[in-house]
């Protein structure tokens, strides 16, 4: 079914990340949908490991310049864009000096999770939402991949609930076996600042618990990895949201 507007929000995508199932799957899904005549956009964080020179990223001045307030602090939003190497598919990168310049993804060199992983996820989610609105491009399908993207539906159904911009978009969440980690205990205060409260994940804020929580805020949950770890599999089996077992990339358009 061509001529759909499909938004992929992801934390990983080949070739910007290599050797992970998520990065490969997102690349294949986005390219397949693009080559079938759909209007596809991809959004991801501009992690410090992604070479701007190698992948020819450049700042989109007309989209940059917004500030996102997190926990009462103004954080500048910088938007960069590149074409997927060898393809005419645009990938947008959410950037901010404070949150995404470091070379590691979620843990430091000693393996300790970054204290501000929660703020980075909030910034990424709100940054994507605000940028899409500024693009004046309304997606038909929003497909979420990676734990940071799980904050997007939570924000859409709470903070942005009265905003009709995304009201007709269907949200698909893919589940992957990602490394779990604790999130800052003060995340409840930061979300309360955005009038978000009452989340079960706040009782024990971890990466995995927010992914499980986000299943309640989407239209479809699908296994991104064929076999999920015990907690994710339990969340998948217990959610009342419509769900699908692992779907081969060649059949992804049937899901949409």
TrEMBL record:
<keyword id="KW-0328">Glycosyltransferase</keyword>
<dbReference type="Pfam" id="PF08323">
    <property type="entry name" value="Glyco_transf_5"/>
</dbReference>
<dbReference type="GO" id="GO:0009011">
    <property type="term" value="F:alpha-1,4-glucan glucosyltransferase (ADP-glucose donor) activity"/>
</dbReference>
<dbReference type="InterPro" id="IPR013534">
    <property type="entry name" value="Starch_synth_cat_dom"/>
</dbReference>
<feature type="domain" description="Starch synthase catalytic">
    <location>
        <begin position="5"/>
        <end position="220"/>
    </location>
</feature>
<protein>
    <recommendedName>
        <fullName>starch synthase</fullName>
        <ecNumber>2.4.1.21</ecNumber>
    </recommendedName>
</protein>
<keyword id="KW-0808">Transferase</keyword>
């Amino acid at each position: 079914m061509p001529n759909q507007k499909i938004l992929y929000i992801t934390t990983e995508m080949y070739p910007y990340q290599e050797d992970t199932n998520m990065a490969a799957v997102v690349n294949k899904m986005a390219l397949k949908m693009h080559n079938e005549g759909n209007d596809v956009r991809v959004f991801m964080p501009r992690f410090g490991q992604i070479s701007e020179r190698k992948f020819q990223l450049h700042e989109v001045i007309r989209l940059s310049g917004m500030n996102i307030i997190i926990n009462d602090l103004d954080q500048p939003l910088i938007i960069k864009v590149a074409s997927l190497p060898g393809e005419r598919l645009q990938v947008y990168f959410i950037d901010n000096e404070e949150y995404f310049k470091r070379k590691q993804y979620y843990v430091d060199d000693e393996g300790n999770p970054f204290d501000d992983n929660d703020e980075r996820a909030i910034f990424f989610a709100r940054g994507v939402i605000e940028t899409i609105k500024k693009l004046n491009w309304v997606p038909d399908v929003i497909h979420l991949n990676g734990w940071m993207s799980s904050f997007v539906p939570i924000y859409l159904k709470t903070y942005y609930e009265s905003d009709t911009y995304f009201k007709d978009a269907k949200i698909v969440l893919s589940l992957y076996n990602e490394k779990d980690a604790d999130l800052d205990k003060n995340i409840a205060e930061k979300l309360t600042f955005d009038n978000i409260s009452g989340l079960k994940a706040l009782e024990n804020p971890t990466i995995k618990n927010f992914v499980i929580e986000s299943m309640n805020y989407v239209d479809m949950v699908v296994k991104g990895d064929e076999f999920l770890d015990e907690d994710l599999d339990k969340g998948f089996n217990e959610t009342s949201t419509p769900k699908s077992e692992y779907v081969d990339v060649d059949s992804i358009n049937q899901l949409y």
